Fold:
Amino acid sequence: MQSMLNKSRASAKRKDALSSTPMKKSDITRQRVLEVTSDLFRRNGYQATSMRDIAAALGMKSGSLYYYYDSKEALLAAILNDNIDATLAGLKQVVANLPADATARQKFEAAIAASVKTISQAGDMAVASAQTLSFLQEPEFSEQSEHRRAYNQFWRDIIIEGKEKGEIRKDLPDAVASMAIVGALTFVAEWYESDRSSTDNIGAIFSRLFFDGMHA
Amino acid sequence: MQSMLNKSRASAKRKDALSSTPMKKSDITRQRVLEVTSDLFRRNGYQATSMRDIAAALGMKSGSLYYYYDSKEALLAAILNDNIDATLAGLKQVVANLPADATARQKFEAAIAASVKTISQAGDMAVASAQTLSFLQEPEFSEQSEHRRAYNQFWRDIIIEGKEKGEIRKDLPDAVASMAIVGALTFVAEWYESDRSSTDNIGAIFSRLFFDGMHA
DNA sequence: GTCTATACTATGATAGAC
DNA sequence: GTCTATCATAGTATAGAC
Structure:
């Protein structure tokens, strides 16, 4: 479920100056390539999906894919990065739509709820962990790190703001705490089953857990 | 860092009745295969490591590997499962070594500390997320699920015990909370850098975060 | 029971014609 | 932009040596 604000330029053949000419034909196709590939990866897995499979689903030949992306790995990186960016943009919007006098806790709860929903819906790979297995190699690895960093920073900023407002204890290291949150959220994609518990429930449980803790 | 109690039989060619004859030569070699492969995967990544690379590092030919493991994927699954098992065994031991009258919180703290240490040391793939990308296919997928389940259950049991002792709020859904914890722990492998913060620190921060929350 | 030699097939990728 | 070769290499199967 790619967001509508998904620009899909990440990891494209060349990093062009950000959208000077709006939409060439190749950009349209590149977008299609990404959508179809994302769908195949999600359904059949990265490994089980061959470049020929992707090309066939697009009605083209495997060689043509390389006009749009340098490699299969670049294709994966683009999908991952786009998902991160789209998720982050969605979160920012949700928080921005809150009343101006919203507490840090309210922002946190809204962001968690939106995050859980996005990640579980469509099994979004959002901040997916393609790292542990050294799945991505250079240069895709470094590029992905940038996108992750921005995503992590979002959570860190909420914590920092909460500290400033006196809602969050000042001795909590925001760098570590934000990683715990991101980790817990990322992992949702791996265990969530649509029938078990609603995403709203999970979001509420997470919010309460991180804010109030487990203690009785 | 494979634990010493690592049996390394997971995903072997056949599920033999658990260790009737203790150590045949092939078992020794199988163990070596796993260690060398684990090292290569960790250093160069799963994809960048070919079966021929593995065989060469072992001083054998690629075809010979198939005497021990059915596929490259089975090799990965065995490593992943072994790591989960070893991590879990270590955690259980740490908790078992606590005084009999230890509180649930103390158990939790000890387990978190041990977990962070294991996961960060040697970039252990412990409960690694090879799932998001549908990396593992059947039958390895189902097999891995079993090992994960056992690991998750460990955390869930601690929470349940805490509830019974009145240390943890009863309205906390243990299934979801344990997933949050496992997710946060798993994710440590992806951001931990040995120079930044000591594992002890991270463990303490995590324990406090999950028990007391972020609130001021 | 343990390993090698060898070959088969599919894959990711490239170069050049259209 | 897209296709048509074409290539090198990958994972894997197997027959048979020791």
